[in-house]
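From the shared-data thread, chain only:
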Amino acid sequence: MRYNIFRINNFKGIHDLKIELNQLPKSHVFTLVGLNESGKTTILEALHWLTNPDNYDNTSLIPRNKMWNFNDTISVSANISLTNHDERMISAYSERQYKFILFEKIDKVKYSREYLYENSELIDTKSSLQMKLIGKTKRMKSIKTLSEDDEKYIKVSNYILKYLLPPIIYYENFLFDFPDKIYLKEKNGHKLNYEDLFYFKVIQDVMYAIDKKRELNPQKHLVDRYLSNKESERRSLGSTLDKLSSKITTEVFTAWRELLKYTSTALSITLGRTLEEDDKGYFIQIQVKEGDNPYLIRERSLGFRWFFSFFLFTHFRAYREKYKKNGLYLLDEPASNLHQTAQSKILNAFDNFPNKQDIIYATHSHHMVNPKWLASTFVVKNEAREYSDVDVAYDSHKTNIKVERYYKFVASYPNDQDYFRPILDALDYQPSKLELVPEIIMVEGKNDFYTLKYFKEMNLIKSSIGDNIYPGTGKDKIEYIVGLYIAWGKEFIVLLDADRGGKATKERLLKRYGPIIKNKIFILSDIVKTWDNFCMEDVFIKTDYPKIIKITFPNNPMYKKSKFNTAIQELYINKHIIKLHTNTIRRFQKIFNFIEKKFTENQSFNEIR
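Structure, as tokens:
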């Protein structure tokens, strides 16, 4: 099962908001960008509340400007698609339990939660799963659609909620301040708090990972053994802790080495050989061993601490649910206190998330925005805040949190740059004097960007360039970035289509900046003369069109430019490699060879000069 569309009504500062995760091109990583206090956290909380209502105080959900007398309903709903595996599971359950044979696929369900208030007091709650169950038993004369009050419908609904509905998991930033002590049991009347219970469950997740029968648990196999007077129980405790240490070491450092290309094997994780205790309760300590020296997690670098926590939470979380393999992970300002290089590494971790499970993360850091996911990026805007004012004026009566897809937002609000500043910063921010600004290839727009990045990152061509490509917002919008790179004295190449617009843009830039960019700006026909009037999609051999399009549009692979470009984006985002015509590969290799040659020529000229 996969969440496709969320609808939120009257949740805190949200009046009516829809988030669509199923738009093309498909992605498993979704970014919420916006300034502080724009409403990013509220959106994450609303999604989390749908499946975790007990984590929230009922009164805190009421819109602030209606707190005095709220007489309405707070609701969050999700449209969810089913996989073939889900269909088989539900069909088998229905037939096994009730002899009710489903004649049609369910295809999708809608899960909703509603809280009804009167005079700002909660008076009723409701949750429901809506779907079509169409079939019959052997005794029925005809096929029927079960009503929501039918016992079989209710039982199937409960089965889906228990075994198939993907969990929505919210990681608040404070959880990444890894504790020195993980308490497994309280004593002396103390109570474990939310953070204690959270980490207790993490230890249970690791136990599930090493025990397929799911018999191991912290109370029985750690705490009770520690409290036992039997020597055999104490030895078993040490053995269990060793096994947990080994599992975490293997999983975490394998991923850490892959992410950072780190070859050392000197690091390991240890949970010790026994439990410890203080006035509050019984606890374990997770430490990193480097040689013979153990260090608390907080004594390691910020980057390692964040990655370690993130991996421990997400990788082992999958073992908690015996049947639910997918989940939706929500992260609020992840890695916000890390250096920009570490933030980039975290983005790589998102891209290689286990089983491509869905992630929605909120950020206002340009280092946490990946142009690869611009198509699945949402801009968050709060109408109660006027960011153009120096004092950041706020009017709670105007509170209304909205989201829009990035490309739609840019088209609709071209002057509201503050709201999508993180994205603009990611693409053309002013570097400091100490930063190494990379040479870049500037292209007209996102479609050219996705195409060239696909050939480069899927290793379909060989080239030393192409890691840094600027996706302009149209051939007429590159001029500003060209000016910046000229001012910085940094290397760049502009590649434009060989159509009328591309030619006009080339002439205008040459006229404006003069000979200094003569060997820096090109159209496709500068590479191959017969490519006159070519756009980037014309570089493909036409027999590749249906092969590419059917990946995204399997039922209608006929060529259409918009469909083709959407399919290319999806191929790149999901790292899907298909077999392309040999001549297509050769043509794109010519593009990269040409640009690489021009970079070399420009660098040689600068050295001589």
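The first strand starts at residue 2 and ends at 11.
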